[in-house]
Specification:
Layout (H helix, E strand, L loop, with lengths): L6 H16 L5 H8 E9 L4 E3 L2 H15 E15 L8 E13 L12 E13 L2 E9 L1 H7 L31 H20 L6 H6 L2 E8 L6 E3 L1 H14 L1 E2 L8 E5 L2 E5 L4 E5 L13 E3 L1 E8 L2 E9 L1 H7 L4 H13 L8
Parallel strand pairs: 1-6, 7-15
Antiparallel strand pairs: 1-2, 3-4, 4-5, 5-6, 7-8, 9-12, 10-11, 11-14, 12-13, 14-15
Helix pairs in contact: 1-2, 2-3
Length: 346
């Protein structure tokens, strides 16, 4: 059986993680520069956004994070690679997903430390060209970290908020070559799901539409602020239905990278789509400002349908575009409480 072979690209990223995760804080910018190209582009969630210098990524993101989450360790749940199926973007990309776990000992982005274990869920796409990482999209759930610190950045939501496990099948770490036919099947069903979703007007009842590409017992591991939900029926009730009801004039879906390997697939966009919020989503008021959704999705296929989905949405960026600085207002309220000022959680 012919196997797809991304061994060199995977090894480069594995070596990068080994060096980065073991490095002293002062050495981090140098390590980033050693593994990346001079034209490096890093895309991260708000308030980091796009950074075009490996040294700046090290100094503005990694060093403060490592100073806050001490004894940091990377806990991988998915590791895969593939050719980008978005041909105009191209490239071989290596994807990892999991948590960065540490002891939350110092403030980060104004979020107060707890002195306890904290887990920052993340997903990262790295494009590898000629032995160097040339692009990175690293998405991380800052609101979930805020909630672990006792903050409430959003009103209560319809789904569950929790530290999310990896694949039920425990087979997401694909360090070795995989059967390309399995990857093709996964990409096909992923593309079919995107096609259904992209129309936003398939003409079927929502649960019937979802059943075309999802298993009945699907798990949707959504970001903090939306939450996780289980089964098509509950997903339709707790996320997809309310989401569709509160957005209008949605753009077509666009991705920078979309790939599959084995029974897993993933994509990201910058943004994936835009839409107008008509009011009610996450308990927030309507806005006339068209908002951007920057999203990473990772999928696991079971048989000929999708079974699990891990989602990273830059909700801080979306609401910031609507004039609501979630990070600033939530940390300010906490600071006011700490000093005895009056205030209430949003």
């Amino acid at each position: 059986m012919i196997k797809s072979n991304f061994i060199n690209e995977k090894q480069l990223v594995k070596d990068f993680y080994t060096r980065l995760d073991k490095a002293c804080e002062t050495d981090i910018p140098e390590i980033l520069e050693a593994f990346t190209s001079p034209e490096y582009l890093w895309r991260g969630f708000h308030p980091f956004n796009e950074i075009t210098s490996a040294q700046e990524v090290g100094e503005s993101f990694w060093q403060p994070l490592r100073g806050a989450l001490t004894s940091l360790q990377r806990r991988l749940d998915v590791f895969m690679a593939g050719h980008n199926s978005i041909t105009e973007q191209g490239g071989v990309w290596v994807v990892s997903m999991g948590h960065l776990m540490g002891l939350f000992d110092q403030p980060w982005l104004g979020i107060p430390p707890t002195g306890k274990i904290a887990m920052l869920r993340y997903c990262e796409f790295n494009r590898v060209d000629n032995g160097k990482i040339t692009e990175t999209a690293m998405f991380f759930d800052i609101p979930h970290l805020m909630m672990q610190a006792g903050l409430q950045p959003f009103p209560p939501q319809t789904a569950a908020h929790l530290v999310q496990p990896g694949p039920m099948t425990h087979d997401g770490l694909m360090f070795d070559p995989q059967d390309p036919e399995e990857g093709r099947k996964t990409l096909d069903v992923t593309n079919a799901m995107i096609s259904d979703l992209g129309t936003w007007a398939l003409g079927l009842p929502l649960e019937e539409e979802l059943a075309r590409t999802w298993n009945d017992n699907m798990v949707w591991w959504g970001p903090a602020g939306i939450g996780a939900t289980y089964t098509i029926k509950r997903y339709a009730k707790q996320h997809s239905g309310p989401f569709r009801a509160t957005f209008s004039d949605r753009s077509s879906t666009g991705h920078i990278c979309r790939l599959a390997e084995g029974r897993f697939s993933g994509f990201f966009g910058w943004p994936n789509f835009t839409a107008v919020h008509t009011g009610g989503f996450m308990g927030m008021p309507a806005s006339e400002v068209r908002g951007e959704m920057r999203v990473i999705d990772i999928y696991r296929r079971d048989g000929n349908k999708l079974a699990e989905n891990w989602i990273f949405i830059d909700l801080l960026h979306f609401w910031n575009m609507q004039g609501i600085d979630i990070l600033a207002r939530t940390t300010a309220i906490h600071a006011g409480h700490e000093t005895g000022a009056n205030g209430a959680h949003p």
